[in-house]
Design a protein that fits this description.
The structure is a single chain. The protein folds into two domains: 152 residues, 3-Layer(aba) Sandwich (Aspartate Aminotransferase, domain 2); 110 residues, Aspartate Aminotransferase, domain 1, CATH 3.90.1150.10. 36% of the residues lie in helices and 14% in strands. Strands 2-8-9-10 form a four-stranded mixed β-sheet. Helix 2 links the parallel strand 4 and strand 5. Helix 6 packs parallel to helix 8.
């Protein structure tokens, strides 16, 4: 989309800073010097994502302030993808980029009904921001409205109205979802460790990366990325489907993800039990 708009995409990856049988998504960080070096007089916009997919990293206030300061210094707009905002665990807390000093006027915040209400088939979301930025989004939006019929818009609007009235109560779906997902996450961590994989425990979202290089397997010799070949091997040999995370990376950085696969734990307990059985038999 950046190229279609006539722009030049510039990428910067999160990199792991720790090793071990179990690490945290918080251990993956941006290099400050590298980040600052990506900004110059031609930089117009940064696309930012917290909680992050595929890692599940929840950026801290310090990390976000560093990005915000660079945006202000170079007069850059921030598109902040925060669709997993209600799914954070433990001490990790979601912070809206637009809430930082001086950032409201230069931030478009992206939300998702599919993620917020667990109806991912409803391709409906929203942008929040100042009028001068939202008007630009409206120009593009009027030409790409294909999956937001009136019934789903009305359903989402009513859901939001109801959940606003429930915030801070035990009935709130927005806050109870993370509580429901936490034991699923922790159970998957243990199953992966027992199977000889090294999970990266997510602070947010419902995906989990895991290093699979401790397992023994023989992959076909093709031009495909290593994680793609491993995913195909896992499906064919173990009947377990996962996602190759290098698909989320630019060509220059995809090697950072080639030793990982992405699991999803927002599943029915029966499905997770089947996956657990496969992992146990593999261990």
């Amino acid at each position: 989309m950046v190229k279609v708009a006539g722009g030049v995409p510039v990428f910067i990856p999160l990199r792991p800073t720790k090793e071990g049988k179990v690490t945290s998504s918080g251990d993956w960080k941006l290099d400050s010097a590298e980040l600052a070096g990506k900004f110059n007089s031609k930089t117009k916009l940064i696309i930012f994502n917290t909680p992050n997919n595929p890692l599940g990293k929840v950026f801290t206030l310090e990390e976000m302030t560093e990005i915000a300061d660079l945006c202000k210094k170079h007069d850059v707009v921030c598109v902040s993808d925060e669709v997993y905002e209600w799914m954070t665990y433990g001490t990790a807390k979601h912070i809206k980029m637009a809430s930082l000093p001086g950032m409201w006027d230069r931030t478009i915040t992206i939300g998702s009904a599919g993620k917020t209400f667990s109806v991912t088939g409803w391709k409906l979301g929203w942008c929040i921001g100042p009028k001068h930025l939202i008007s630009c989004a409206q120009v593009a939006h009027q030409n790409c409205t294909y999956t937001s019929p009136t019934p789903t818009q009305e359903a989402v609007a009513r859901g939001l109205e109801l959940e606003i009235s429930r915030l801070g109560t035990p009935e709130s779906y927005l806050t109870s979802l993370a509580e429901e997902l936490l034991p699923k996450r922790d159970n998957l961590v243990q199953q992966l460790v027992d199977a000889g994989l090294k999970p990266v425990v997510p602070e947010g979202g419902y995906f989990m990366m895991a290093d699979y290089t401790g397992k023994e397997f023989e992959l076909p010799d093709t031009d495909e990325a290593k994680d793609f070949r491993f995913v195909q091997w896992l499906i064919k040999n173990k009947n377990l489907a996962v996602i190759p995370p290098s698909a989320f990376y630019s060509a220059e950085h995809e090697h950072l993800a080639e030793n990982y696969v992405r699991f999803c734990f927002i599943k029915k307990d029966d499905t997770l039990k089947k996956a657990s059985k496969i992992l146990k038999e593999w261990s």
